[in-house]
Amino acid sequence: MKDKNLEKLTQQIIEETDGGAFAKLIQKLLKKYSSTERTYVLHVLTEYARNGKILHWRNFLLSDIIKLVDENETEYIPFFEWCVTQPELTYWGIDGLLKTKGEKSFRTLIELVKNENLETSVRAKAIKSLSIYSKQAFDRDLPKDPGYWKAEDLRIAEVESWEKEGYQRGEGYDKPKTHDSLEKPKTSLEKAVAKLNKKLEAKRRKNQDLSNPANWLVIADQADMLKIAKRWELPENYVLFLKNYSPLNVYIDSKKYFQGLNIYGASDLLERQEGYSFNPVTNQIIEEWPKKFVVIADAGADPYCIDISQIKDNDAPIYKSIHGAGVWEFELYADSFLSFLKEIAGA
């Protein structure tokens, strides 16, 4: 190796015992050398994963290794086969083995699924990764993060049946249905929503799991819209928004909103009133809550409400309050839902 600086950096990584300093050294290695010296960088990382001094970093490095390794790069199969036998490395080693060995890793991963001595999260991870790779729906209706799965969520019988049938490839999941106007917006509302959708598209490209889709604006279920219409008389702009661009697990990560902003959709608008206007424990209406306010979003449980007593020109103002203060004190946040939507799209 000709690069003396890389030699020196490698030695520093091997000898470092402080986690914070180690993180900076790894960041420097990846940023400066991962594109020009990929094979050598992979050697440094895999050797550290095997024998490194800082135990938790041996695990953390697997995600970087998996990113750098190309699909079906068979020389790394033995490394990942070893990883899945190490309790502290099994979880992420699963993805590395699938990436390098492909379908030939299925039998090994199914053995992990059936191993009752392993933690539930590891067995769940094996099922989740198999599901994504094979496009089988073993992960349907379950949390995106398999770390939140319970033992009863593990569809072991389905996995075993799939194995007996020869590992048939599934159909995966369809993308949620979206409104045509997202591509060709005309009205002010449509243009604001289209701008928001562009922001959400960027998030979806980075991290999307269609078994549990997030950050989509979708066409609402008619049954949900009928339930909403029976409960409230809402302004037309907001009704159109819910009907044609209903937020599906939409979360806006921005400093503008405390702990980020959760925007409610037609499927969860009624349920989201719980804790504000309705107590689900006592099954009673909370009298202190203003009947004119419908909570349409929250930032760290701080509610953003549309005031249905002030509907004008097919819209209504948005009010905000802070939770946990003992008494709800509302202040005007936006003069209309459209203004609020434009702010979200630009946040």
TrEMBL record:
Alphabetized Gene3D superfamilies for the sequence: SMI1/KNR4-like (3.40.1580.10)
Signal peptide, first to last residue: none
Pfam families: SMI1_KNR4
Domain Knr4/Smi1-like: 230-342
Record protein name field: SMI1/KNR4 family protein SUKH-1
Organism from which the protein derives: Sphingobacterium yanglingense
